[in-house]
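name: query_chain
kind: protein
chains: 1
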Amino acid sequence: MMPTAKDLQNWIGSDLAFRIDGKSIFCQLCGKPINSEKKFLVDQHKRTKKHKEKVLEARRKDGQTSSKMVKQLSIPGVFSKQQECRDEEKAFKEALCKALLKANIPLNKVDNEEFKSFLSKYTGRKIPCESSLRKTYVASTYEKNFK
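structure:
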């Protein structure tokens, strides 16, 4: 049985990092919908490393708590925001691949824990593994930049 809107509201409390869209919950910080079939899934999302980092980032930017978030988006707005986030992630991964290739840095260096944590810390993004870069971005990067 799906939870009611009242259940969802009780689960997220006054944390405005989350928004209720009908019968689902959307995390405005992470820019993604949260599986809201069970309360523990919402709690599990709150405990993820990415969400915690986004909360800290929002606090640093605003100098306030995560409860002062952006206004509620419409459902089409949610989907466009998700697409925007995916496009930004893709552009970052393409730029990372291009930079590594142009600097003649082997792609396997992104799997080095120290390098990966450095990049992640200063870019604020999740760094893809070498095989993801190779399978998804090398061919298109080569076509665009090396021919």
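note: Residues 65-70 have pLDDT under 50 and may be disordered.
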